[in-house]
């Protein structure tokens, strides 16, 4: 049995780590090594090179794109938490036949394709004079992060027994005070999940970014990389993989750190 569990674990670890391994190998392999089909694609057949990273940082504005992505991501995460936390809590504590229906309806708005919404959003952005501004993305991105995170947080809040809040209110706290001093500390893991998911959704979004931003210096990573590293039918694979690796590794590390806390059982630990 232990051997079977180890085999399954090895399989999934290999499966999940392989994309990072492939990005790493592609980033540091020479162009000739990458294109020669007669050479082993999983190993360095020639000495590693920094040529692709040099192209990425010297011939593009990748560093600025990273800064733009981080700035937009942080702003959107703050807006998302400000709106999704009270909304998720209200839906979790709401009673009656419409509570579940309302929660599902909010989540369904997240499923509306961006290709349908970007035309009316473009009109709103034009009226507000935010064309080619990162503020346009800060305004638009919460349209899909808030519904998703509200639905996500609603599940976390439902897992917290009402008895904890009632006990705090008996001790003299108001409903808001019980939420701040009792529910919020227990829900830290849930809010971290919302932060990670919201930031991830922002970093991988393409349609709104390419629609509302036209200046290269204002691009985010998800728009700048394919725009400047795909020229006609020429793909700068090494530079593209380097860009993806640099952008994805920090998120992957943070996400895995949080998953460990989630598996430990944040709710049961808090109740005890």
TrEMBL record:
Taxonomic superkingdom: Bacteria
Transmembrane segments: 7-24, 65-92, 104-128, 134-157, 178-200, 206-229, 236-258
GO biological-process terms attached to the record: transmembrane transport
Repeat in keyword set: no
GO cellular component, one term: plasma membrane
Organism for this UniProt entry: Afipia massiliensis
UniProt cross-references to Pfam families, sorted A to Z: BPD_transp_1
Protein name: Carbohydrate ABC transporter permease
Similarity annotation: Belongs to the binding-protein-dependent transport system permease family.
